[in-house]
Amino acid sequence: MKKGLVILYTGRGKGKTTAALGLALRAWGHGFQVCVIQFIKGRQDTGEAAALRRLQGVDLHVTGRGFLFGPETPESDRAAAAEGWRLARERMASGRYRLLVLDEITYAVNRGMVDLQELLGCLEKRDGRLHVVITGRDAPSSLVEAADLVTEMREVKHPLSRGVKAQAGIEF
Amino acid sequence: MKKGLVILYTGRGKGKTTAALGLALRAWGHGFQVCVIQFIKGRQDTGEAAALRRLQGVDLHVTGRGFLFGPETPESDRAAAAEGWRLARERMASGRYRLLVLDEITYAVNRGMVDLQELLGCLEKRDGRLHVVITGRDAPSSLVEAADLVTEMREVKHPLSRGVKAQAGIEF
Lengths: 172, 172
Known about the structure:
Two copies of one chain form a homodimer.
Chain A: E1 6-10, H1 16-29, E2 34-38, H2 47-52, E3 58-62, H3 75-94, E4 99-103, H4 105-110, H5 116-125, E5 131-135, H6 141-146, E6 149-157
């Protein structure tokens, strides 16, 4: 039995987005059409953006506006997440893709910017060959339930706690 | 302070090699020279191999001969690991690279195919701007100690335990 998987990378450790990017690279290497939507990261100058834009057959959308710190969610961020989610639904329904990455969507879900039930419904109804990769901390239990493969990235040691700054090629 | 990091992805969960590949993609997007050495995987027809061979500035070596199951390590596998390690040392010393991935090298270390003290010595002596990414289960504690960033990929749910076969674009 071969089927499209829902893959969830969660937990507080580093490696969630990078593992999703690795799957995108691997899928692209097999000639699959790939779509990556970044829901929170707002930078357009990341290594992944520069790289993915050079890979023919990869469709990248950076719809985020940067990390949300406070308890309030500005309307502009809500609108950005809504646009990301509109694109995601459209890509899922199109039948054109074999791998779709919803990067950091759990943050948007946990802030009510993307409706969890709607996400679960779209995963359930999707083309059976489409793999969907979801990343972000604090994945809701119903999303863990819906996923086929779940890895928790557990932080054992983090360089930022050792006084090393975020740097190009590693953090972004 | 900006410096080359030693990044270790370990644990039993999926996402270690893919996270390393994601870092390779990100680094390549920033224009860095990247080298990836696969110590155990022996397949040449993986998605990552097809993809990385198309990225100019990425140097890929699949030196592995496939996963080792039994307690014995055949001489041919020892010779393959020795060749991978020779390449790794040469790449580390060359000064040409900004990111080096030693994929699944922990298995080679734990079987005595690559000497742990020699690996630690090479990490210590390397060019300060070179990032080294190490993957594999059961990383020795001295390697955890030497690393700047360590994530344990913890298996929460695995599709192969749900009757789904390994498939192109996801598992390889």
